[in-house]
Amino acid sequence: MAFNWDKFCKAQRDNPRPKFALDAVGKLLKKRPNDPYLLAWKASTLLNFDGRANEALSILTTLCQRQPPITDTNLLPFLYDRILNASRQSDPKCLPLSSVGAEGLKAWQNAAKALPNRKAKLKLWSDLFVVSMREECWEDVRWATMQANKEGTDSKSRKAIYYSLILANQLGGERRAELAKEADKIDPSTRIQLTIALRQMEEAYGNSTKPTVRCTRQPL
Q: Can you tell which superkingdom this protein's organism belongs to (predicted)?
């Protein structure tokens, strides 16, 4: 029986206890060893056990390289969330993450190549934008915004993308500055990023407050 997102969610609800969930998914994987939903379920379950985060991370990053790629826009954000979770568990002392990493983003790149049209790709980048915003991974927010812009958008969407990119640049720069300060390092590229973001915000604010000039026809 092929899995999909609904069956995946039901299986997790039906097996809330990690030990029994791991047994259940193990039996299913014997019949379908390459099923992405079952592998995602196993990886997610492993995160409930001490010392198994690296094993979970290995499964998750392998899924991101999968061919044909995963295009389920429910499963991709799930994988994104679990990769961050596994990364934090594997190194509890690590600094706050600003990105899921190149391997995690590869899943989204592969999915975009496989999607049939511009509308589906824009939906994909929107989903990445939302999940990375929620996780405060500002480098990924910026990257998702840039990918959406490459797809070509209408004037209204371009304006939203422009302001989103300014926000991501500012917040991403602030996060990098915080990390550099904690590590007692000077990062010139972060200073440049913040300077550019500030200039963009000033320009955007200036444009939004410019008075509208109305041309009125004077009587002869």
A: Eukaryota
